[in-house]
Amino acid sequence: MEVHQNQLQSINNKEEKQTDIWQLFREAQQNILYLNKQRLTAIEELDRVKNERQSLVNKIEQLEAKKQGNTRRDKLAISSELLLRIDSMVLTGIIGGREASDFRKLIMDSRGGVTDDLYDTIYKKDAELLAKLRHFSVKGKKKGFHIVHICTEMEPVVSVGILASYVTGISLALQRKGNLVEVILPKYAELNLDEVQGFREVEAQLYSYFNGQLHENKVWTGVVHGIGVTFIQPVYYSSFFSQERVYGYSNDFERFTYFSRASLDYIVKSGKQPDVLHIHNWQTSIIGPLFWDVFVNQGLEGTRILLTCQGFDSQCLEQPEKLALCGLDPSRLYRLDRLQDNKKAHLVNILKGGVVFSNKVIIMTSIQSKDQIISGLGHGLQPTLTIHKEKLLIAPRGFDKSIWDPSLDKFLPQNYSADNVNGKSVCKVSLQRHLDLPQQASKILVGCIYSDISEFDLENLKMLVWMASKKGVQFIFMGFSQSAGISTALEFFKEEMKVFYLHFLLSANCFSREPFIGLDE
């Protein structure tokens, strides 16, 4: 019995040991599972921290990039303000043209260092600023071109057609590449510059020749998007730019000829010596013959003329004797190889004069080649364009994203960006609702912003709309044409296509009632 009890006790002890071992094993398994779960949780937490860290790094990089961009824009604005102050000192007789030219080169060659050192004195009296400029005046090699636009539109100041965004976009792009860019505009009555921060009237008298006499002008200067802008306002001919519209008056030739002559007078009197005078469309084409016949020997021997044409359908035909209004010799220019119109031989063609007297001519188009434009879209200028074919350049229409950013536009129902396009469908449906189009985010919606459409393009467009609309494609056309014929054709097109998913937004030939919206920002 005793032996038997000892055996039973031994068995019980073994079973208890086995039970303890299994208990330990199960506890070990649970611990391992718990540790694995904790490990996975730790890995997930680590990934989350890494992602948050990367997100913070990205945000910091974006903020740094934005800060650098703002800093660069600030320096451009300071440089432009300094250059305008130099112009003012020349006009008021404080400094001469040669010293002003040296100061301009100083600013152009040292956008960073000098502008930082002069920041505190930029709004002080002329004597203090002049002392600083003379202190920093050093000879240096010119690094960029000095380009002056003489034009009738610029965003966001005054915008009628595609010219306004083109002038602003190309000016910003050229400044980013280290060039100095300025813009000269008419002072339209709608633009109340007294209420705009940073714009001021230059206390100087600028006289310009017109209609046999010298007439006084007021000059206003300021900075838009970091670009120096000058406005010229006639005193005696104050009615020239007091109308509600920019274009479309019987005296448009007189209005823009006066402005063109006054712009050249301002450039000479302020001592500017730009590398390029960039003129636009027929409105400032008279600068071509004016420059070579009157102004080239007034310190502008190194300047060249660049003409940009948004199209050839608007040319301005006038009586030859009217050229004398701005000081030109009609008998010298009224020739077939100069300004005489190719079809109406008794008239002069102002746009033709711009083509003939410019060193280069840029033609804005998205689809046509140079030969197509010369043969089919010259609107009577084919012989002239053929003779001057070598100076013609074709440039596609583009978009400058620095002007508009959908991620920042406060007027959009929902913002979006290239990285997050979710808000784009919301904007699309909102646009469809606003224009009474069937509201469906999955529908293909084609937007077309145009300045002018030829009859050939219009016929192709009709066929495209007809075919695509049968598949539910929606179209929105927005734009403006200075040509009455094209506007009428577009109205007929709108009427023909009204049964399709199509909407037209035809803008009037006038500028915004709020021309400086967003300028302070």
From TrEMBL:
Full protein name: starch synthase
PANTHER family (alphabetical): PTHR46083, UDP-GLYCOSYLTRANSFERASE SUPERFAMILY PROTEIN
InterPro entries reported for this sequence: Starch_synth_cat_dom (IPR013534)
Pathway linked to the protein: Glycan biosynthesis; starch biosynthesis
Biological source species: Olea europaea subsp. europaea
Enzyme Commission number, as recorded: 2.4.1.21
Keyword check for Transferase: yes
Keyword terms of this UniProt record: Coiled coil, Glycosyltransferase, Starch biosynthesis, Transferase
Record-level Gene Ontology MF annotations: alpha-1,4-glucan glucosyltransferase (ADP-glucose donor) activity
Lineage: Eukaryota, Viridiplantae, Streptophyta, Embryophyta, Tracheophyta
Record carries keyword Transmembrane: no
Coiled coil: 39-73
